[in-house]
Design goal:
4 strands; 12 helices; 53% helix; mainly alpha; 324 residues; four-stranded mixed β-sheet
C-alpha cells in the first residue's frame, strides 16, 4: 500500500471516529477548521507532536482563526461562511488534532518525498472541504415566524437571515418564483438554477409571464438596466424586483435609464403583498398562505439545486397552520 493510500485510510478512520454533534449533524466545525490549519502547516513543518501546533496556553491550536480557515476553503472553491473564529470555537480541538497526528504517524507519511507528502496533505484537505460542503447542504435557513408582524417584515427577516449566510441572491430569486407560481397556479413559472445567468442563456429575464419580464437582483448594477432596456426595445413590460433598502436608488437609476417605463418594486412588497391579497387579509389565512409559499419555495429549490442549504425550515408556528 502506498503512503498516500495509508494516509487516506488513516485519515478516514480518524474522521469517522470523531464525535457527532447534534447541532451540526457531524463533527464539530472547530475541529474541521483546526485540522485544515494543521494540515496546511504540515506542508512546510512536518511535526507530528501536538505541542508544535498548540497556541500559548496550550488550550487552542496555533493559527486557527476564521480568516485562515476561510482562505483555505476558498482555494478549494468553497466560499460560503463556515466559521467565525476557526478552531477557537471548539475547546475539544486539541484532543481531536492529537488523534489526527497519531493517525498520520501510523501512516508513515514522514518517509514520503516532500512533494508527494504535500500532495497527500492537500488531498486530505480536499476531503475536509467536501465535508464542509456536505455540512452546508444540511443546513436550512431558519427564522422565527411572528404572526403579529406584517408580511413585509417577515419577508425582510428571511432576506436578512439569507444575507448572513451569503444566500440573499438565490433566496430572493426563489421567493419571487414561488410567489408567481402561488399566485398563478395554472401557469408554468420558469424555474432556473440561480447560477444560470439570464444573459448567458439568452433569457429575457429571471421570469417571464404574459408580455412581462421580471428581473430579480439584490445588487442592481448597470447590467440589469441594460437587460431592462433590451426588454423594452423588444416590446415587453419590465419589472425590476430588489430589496427594499436599495429600492429608492434602483428607481432613480431606472428613471434615468428609461423614465417611467421600468416598474421597480421591493421584494418585501412584491412577495408579502401577494400573501396578504391571496389570504383576503385574514390572519388565519395569512398563516396558511405563508406556509404554502415556503413549501412551494422549497419544492422549487429542491427540484433544481444540489445545494439544499438554500431551502427554508418551516417555522413551528406555521406547521400548525391548516393545509390547502
Amino acid at each position: 500500500m502506498s503512503a498516500r493510500d495509508r494516509a487516506i485510510r488513516a485519515f478516514s478512520q480518524w474522521y469517522n471516529g470523531l464525535p457527532v454533534h447534534t447541532a451540526s449533524g457531524g463533527p464539530a466545525r472547530g475541529t474541521i477548521g483546526a485540522a485544515l490549519i494543521v494540515l496546511e502547516r504540515l506542508k512546510t513543518e512536518y511535526a507530528l507532536d501536538l505541542d508544535a501546533h498548540r497556541a500559548g496556553g496550550g488550550s487552542q491550536i496555533r493559527g486557527a482563526s476564521g480568516w485562515s480557515v476561510k482562505e483555505i476553503l476558498a482555494r478549494f472553491g468553497e466560499t460560503r461562511p463556515f466559521l467565525s473564529e476557526g478552531g477557537r470555537t471548539n475547546r475539544g480541538a486539541p484532543g481531536d488534532i492529537r488523534r489526527l497526528l497519531e493517525a498520520l504517524r501510523a501512516a508513515g507519511l514522514e518517509h514520503a518525498p516532500p512533494q508527494e507528502r504535500v500532495e497527500v496533505l492537500t488531498a486530505l484537505q480536499a476531503e475536509l472541504v467536501q465535508r464542509v460542503r456536505e455540512w452546508h447542504n444540511r443546513q436550512r435557513l431558519t427564522f422565527s415566524y411572528d404572526s403579529s408582524k406584517t408580511t413585509w417584515q417577515i419577508v425582510r427577516e428571511i432576506l436578512d437571515r439569507a444575507r448572513e449566510s451569503g444566500k440573499e441572491g438565490p433566496v430572493a430569486q426563489y421567493l419571487v418564483g414561488a410567489k408567481l407560481q402561488l399566485r398563478h397556479p395554472n401557469i408554468q413559472v420558469e424555474n432556473f438554477s440561480y447560477s444560470t445567468a439570464d444573459a448567458q442563456q439568452a433569457r429575457r429575464g429571471d421570469f417571464f409571464l404574459g408580455d412581462t419580464a421580471f428581473h430579480v437582483t439584490v445588487a442592481p448594477m448597470a447590467g440589469v438596466y441594460e437587460r431592462c432596456k433590451s426588454n423594452l426595445r423588444d416590446g415587453y413590460r419590465v419589472y425590476l424586483i430588489v430589496p427594499d433598502h436599495v429600492a429608492v436608488g434602483a428607481r432613480q437609476n431606472a428613471d434615468t435609464v428609461e423614465p417611467g417605463r421600468i416598474f421597480v418594486q421591493s421584494i418585501e412588497s412584491f412577495v408579502g403583498g401577494n400573501v396578504n391579497e391571496m389570504s383576503v387579509f385574514s390572519k388565519s389565512d395569512i398563516d396558511r398562505q405563508f406556509r404554502q409559499l415556503l413549501e412551494l419555495y422549497n419544492a422549487r429549490v429542491d427540484a433544481i439545486e444540489t445545494d439544499k442549504s438554500m431551502m427554508i425550515e418551516i417555522p413551528p408556528a406555521l406547521l400548525d397552520a391548516d393545509g390547502p
